[in-house]
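Hi R.,

Here's the chain you asked about this morning:
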Amino acid sequence: GIRLHKGVLMYAAEHVKRLFQGAKAIDVDVGVTPEGLIKMMYDTVDANEMHEGVHIRLMVTRGLKSTPYQNPTFTVGKPTIVIAAEHKTAAEGPKVNGMRLMTTHVRRGAPDVQDPAWNSHSKLNCIAACIQANKAGVDESLMLDPHGFVATCNSVHFFIVVDGVVVTSKRKYILHGITRDNVMRIARGLGIETREEDFTLTAVYSADECFVTGTFAGVLPVREVDGRKIGDGERGPVVRRLQEAYVKEADAIARRGRGG
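And the predicted structure, written out as tokens:
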């Protein structure tokens, strides 16, 4: 997703670049330039007089087919581009009270199965993990990589804080998250040490703080994983600093305007 904040699309160039990388990998011709796609999104929100509190789902498919069959050679015509913009804002409660997670049995796959870097519609492993979280009555599923190390959640990226150091998984088995990367950059700018490394659930349970990142909500604390309270169960100081800094950066981007 892409967020519209004060009339400006947040990190639009990064999001569109990732889309084009995935499209190239699966041999989809998007049919427009990255700049043209960004303009289409702005045209959509402007036509609907949208300015603030808007979340956009940008989707591209190969287009119509002459018959329902998986082979792309049966595609006819141009690709289908969907820009679904809706007024939607994250609830304030979880930003303070935090989320509850559980570890799912569904693993993140290796790139030779289906590259996790593709932000594709075919994400049934993440959907299965989401369903399991729903059935268990928690907010998200925490997913492990094929070797048993923590990878990511079913729709957001996961971090732990240990002795003031922010730690997240390596990029091998995750979607290359735009908000994830920006929050890591912001953390380093604040003088917070940030690492990408393998870690297990044992490190998660004993972490001082945990949090997740995503386009829709930004930075959210995690108060519980697999029934274990994280830290003292409250939003920690590192998460609070990152939340405040992330909001300030979004405002700064908006002040620079659409050409900034």
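The chain has two domains: 2-89, 93-249.

Let me know if you need anything else.
M.
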